[in-house]
Amino acid sequence: MRLELGTFPVRALSFGDATRYRDGHLEVDREATLAEVRRDSRIVEAALEIARPGESVRIWPVRDVIEPRIKVEGPGVCYPGVCGRDIATVGTGRTHRLAGMGVVEVSSVNWHDSGGDFVETYLDMSGPYAQMYPYAALQNLCVVVEPDRALNDEARNDAVHTAALAVNDHVAAATLGLTPPEVQEWTLRPVDPALPKVVYIWGVHSPQAMSGSMTAFCTATYGLTRLTPPWLLHPNEILDGALSGPYRTAFAMSWTVANNPLFLDLYRRHGRDWNFLGVIVLRTEWTTQHEKLLTANQTAKLAQMLGAQGAVVTWDAGGNEFIEVVRTIQACERLGIKTVFLTSEDDATEGAPTMLEPLPEADAIVSTSFFKNRTLGVPDPGPVDRVIGLPDKMVNADQRSNTGGGRDKKVPTRGSLPAPWRYDDHYGFGTLSCIE
Amino acid sequence: MISAIYALALTTGANRVVRGARIEHVCGDPNLGPEKDYAYGMRIVTSALAALTTPVAGPTLFDPLAVAEKADKGSGHAS
Question: Please, where are the H alpha helices in A191-320?
């Protein structure tokens, strides 16, 4: 499987009379783009806004950030399967990406109404909180949409994400016929057999148990989010967006998945420092001890059958999903596969462990810090000049005890807001250092 | 403690751990229908009460299904 990935850096983004890319400047024809969005009759309100790095702008609610990618040659489409898109296996041929920009999906639509999973992410393009996320450094094209309220949760989620993908397709198509300033060829070429064989076990949350639905929207493998056995993906499939879509944390977005520095480094150093075998996507949030242990055992078995000597493990959630993730580490270690775990940590309060189930086999851990902003002492973001999205936000009365969706009072989005309650850097984007 | 993720409860030091159904419905199973859901819930709660009166030396797992089967044999009527 061989993929040429052409990169078009976007250093400036503006509206213009045509959608075109030239010398790092992407111009977007606002009306033509919105016409693509409005082709879906489920969308009743649609607007496009631009947010640039350093501006006093707040975007709320942010459901997803997508890096525009488009298939130029080869089977399938980028971001396959999701919202009914083609499910042909991707990862071969040529793909173009618009780097340094994001399509930001903005809507009031929640993932589902069964509790626990809230759309809680807002993005500031400047100020202290902006430094904590990679998105504030991007040129952001915000798709602000509301679907027909009469539709059910899943249809509304589908409509909103379809709208964002329509914008992805429209702007990425501006690169068709152009020569990319930078092209990289990606392939798992045969390497020195003496190099250690390493697999990436990539845990992604399934909303199935929480929502009670097989088709609830979340980070998807070819559009599927249900609880399924582990998936073996070629790294090129990841580059084409076979794993995409958001979850409730600000780091679980399509953009972050596509630009996961851990994954990209594993792939870049294939043949030099190790033999990268591929990605095992581990679906998490099974709901019995048996299911959690079964999925852990099967994931480790799959890694063993691939010949893995080492595994790097990440996850994208913060609750009971930890069990199948840490049990996968245990199962790998018991099969002789050395593991390294990249994770954020819970509060170190009252002597409790900072991880739900600390196991002796998980003895090589890279921490990306405590996930609760209360612990980190992140200051409340102050007022901003402009809001993209909803003018109000629900917050909790005790702003420091936020445990997810605010519910006590409504405050203006442009004023001072409580710091988002959690900061889970799942893939090691962060550049913040420890308080010493 | 009644827990669907009973191994975690045992490792965190709970002395009496009763095996629950699932995370989303620990004390029963709505898929069984109202009557059997109630009976299953009663088994879990009854075995939790029995666990409270059972001396243990350390973290111990109580399985409501195993306990209920034994009780059924003894009393001679089906649940």
Answer: 208-211, 235-239, 254-258, 261-268, 289-305
- DSSP character for B47? H
Tokens of A309: 């000597």
Judging by beta carbons within 10 Å of its beta carbon (0-12, 13-18, 19+), is residue A20 exposed, middle or buried? middle
Residues 6+ apart with CB under 8 A from A254: A64, A65, A66, A67, A79, A241, A244, A245, A246
Q: Which two tokens stand for residue A291?
A: 């299911």
What is the distance between the terminal CA atoms of chain A, rounded to a whole angstrom? 47
Instruction: State the sign of the Cα–Cα–Cα–Cα dihedral A242, A102, A158, B23.
Output: positive
Among A210, A286, A287, A290, the residue to mutate for chain B (most B Cβ within 10 A): A287
Q: Is A1 on the interface with B (CB under 8 A)?
A: no
Interchain contact, B4 vs A287, CB within 8 Å: yes
Between A432 and A86, name the one with better pLDDT: A86
Contact A81, A223 (CB under 8 A): yes
Contact B24 A287 (CB under 8 A): yes
CA distances (Å), A10 to each of A57, A175, A267, in order?
19, 11, 24
**pLDDT exceeds 80 at position A421:** no
Query: In this complex, do B24 and A292 lie within 8 Å of one another by their Cβ atoms?
Result: no
Closest Cβ opposite residue A320 in set B5, B12, B19: B5
**Residue spans of beta strands (DSSP E) within A285-345:** 310-314, 338-345
Q: Which amino acid is at A353?
A: P
Q: Is the pLDDT of residue A90 over 90?
A: yes
Residue spans per domain, chain B: 2-75
What's the length of chain A?
436
Beta strands A93-99 and A2-9, pairing class: parallel
Contacts with A210 from chain B: Cβ below 8 Å: 24
Alpha-carbon distances, residue A145 vs A45, A46, A65, B53 (angstroms): 5, 4, 14, 58
Which residues of chain A neighbour B19 with C-beta distances below 8 Å?
A: 289
ipTM: 0.78
CB proximity under 8 Å: B 4-43 to A: 4-8, 11-12, 19, 21-24
One-letter identity of residue A152:
N
> Which stretch of DSSP H or E encloses residue A25?
strand A25-28
The least confident of A94-103, A177-186, A235-244, A311-320 is A311-320
